[in-house]
Amino acid sequence: MSRRAAVYARISQDREGAGLGVGRQERDCRELASRLGWVVVEPVRVDNDTSASNGRARPGYAALLEDLRTGRADAVLCWHTDRLHRRPVELEAYIDLCEQRGIPTVTVKAGPLDLATPSGRMVARQLGAVARFEVEHASDRARRRRLQAATDGRWSGGRRPYGYEPDGVTVLLHEAAEVRAAAAAVLAGRSLRGIVREMNARGARTSTGVPWTTKALRDVLLRPRNAGRMLHQGRDVGPAGWRAILDEDQWRAVVAVLTDPQRRTSPGSERKWLLSGLARCGVCGAPVKATSAARRVGYTCSSGKHVIRSAVQVDAHVQAVVVERLGRPDARELLAPRRPDTTSLHLQADDLRHRLKGLAGAYADGHVDAAQLRSGSDRLHARLAEVDAAIAAASRGSVLAGVVDAPDPAAVWARLDLDRRRAVVEVLVDVVIFPARKGRRPGWRAGESYFDPATVWVEPKRS
After folding, report:
1. What is the pTM of this model?
2. Among 21-25, 147-151, 235-239, which range has the highest average pLDDT?
3. Which fold has domain 173-258?
4. Judging by DSSP bridges, how do beta strands 308-310 and 296-300 pair with one another?
5. CA angle 378-382-386, nearest 5°?
């Protein structure tokens, strides 16, 4: 009996990029149709470079089912049953459709499947179970290989990482210099937005040749790779087989800064005034913000009623107080203490990572199961996170470095950009802005500003 056969071809990975695999399947199916005396319904349904095991949409397969539902085809030809299905849930839906309409499936390699009979359906389900087992077994082997490669410190390939040659191992000097400069700027209190602006202005580009964004730079700076560490499934699993760009302690300090919950990361307009978000209202205690009205910029709190003060005058006063403080003979005492010895912390971290590596090796060799691996690694990672946090805290340094220890702090302050000035203010003083007094301030003289410094408190922060 002649039938109208729908041909389906699929390949999971088209490494050649030319559709040769599905082309060969289609050719074999057409030859099978000729031997059976069946007519091939055009067009042939194809899913090239598409997996059948991950549950994602397969347009070609969806079109095949539609051909069967509408009666355009009353038979199916494919190269093997695993080209049609790798998931039992899809197989069951396919069996229901073919059983209802009496649609036979014939494969080049596995022969015919009569889904209208219990024995035929049993065979189809058995073949489907074997296909699913092969997928899961291959996935498990691949997962173990990746874990072993990660714990051995080997790069597994992929897109060229910024700062390294395409081999993922050789340091690319000019890009490594950009990473070091950006890391130093972060630790000095600079914002990612400001760093990105300067990088793009001087023509620096990402590894894919596009301008930098704050997200792209943040992602690069957070990489364990920068410190010669290996990352697997989002976790640092040990030393890598390439040279580090950053000192490990410095990298951990950068991570601590960028992942600090208090760090402002929400999108929005860039800060343009010194005290926006830093100073507090003297009435309600809310942070002040800069607002524009009648071509003047003023600081106001969230209510918009408690304080409305000139941003220019308040900033000038606070900067004068800060510069005076930076210029005092005892200003160097404001610097963080000399970096403590972190040797013992690193020994603890190395021991924990060694134990993690041993646990991963035991899983790869089948000595522990997935539940034991997860339980043990969670405990070790929790302790490791505590040790890493201690290392980072000991290495963050001070945003005042290079300012209070400069021969002329006032001259250095004048050259700082707004990001760095805000960082200095944030660590050095608390600023509280009160409403302006009614009338002229005491001691006011003709020609002087009405601004009253006594209404802006600038208090040194307690250490």
Report:
1. 0.51
2. 21-25
3. Hect, E3 ligase catalytic domain fold (3.90.1750)
4. antiparallel
5. 165
